[in-house]
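Bug report

Summary: structure tokens for NAD(P)H-dependent oxidoreductase subunit E differ between web form and batch submission.
Environment: batch mode, default settings.
Steps: 1) Submit the sequence below via batch. 2) Compare with the web form result.

Sequence submitted:
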Amino acid sequence: MEISHAKQVINIDAKLTERINELLSHYPADKKKSAMLPVLHEVQDAHDNWLSIELMDRVAEILEVQPIEVYEVASFYTMFNQKPVGKYMFEFCRTSCCAIRGAEDLMDYTCSKLGIKEGETTPDGNFSVVGVECLGACGYAPMLQLGDYYKEHLTKEKIDALIDECRDNKVNLH
Ligand code: FES
């Protein structure tokens, strides 16, 4: 697991606590660990899309588990970020169908257009680019996930347009 030493303001406020409690209510009181995935999603969404060690430790307290159990889950799934990421995170599928249809070239194109390497974030904090495993939209390859949405049948022209829309604040993430 890559450890980030970036500081994160932790804010588990009343609204987030209420949402977490609602999620926990779906599981037996002595099996809070079962709610780990939805709770991590909820907590990450409320904290600029990343989970610091301190925040994962808070989740461990809430779920009444050891911190290592939260680290293991958060570091296994690519949808959880252990370092600050850009507001617009381009998650390129690089598995077989997308790879055959040019995903690697499109990711390289996007990185060079943004002046970053894969796994990096632009200095203004707006864009990140990462490669991920199959996102289950193989029939629409090549594709990427941006926030809660899939962008499919990608081309360089579509990438150009998408970046412009992000810069113009015209892209919904949720
Ligand atoms: S291979 Fe890309 S979505 Fe499945």
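Above is the batch result. After comparison, the two runs are identical; trailing whitespace caused the diff. DSSP finds seven helices and four strands in the chain. The chain has a mean pLDDT of 96.
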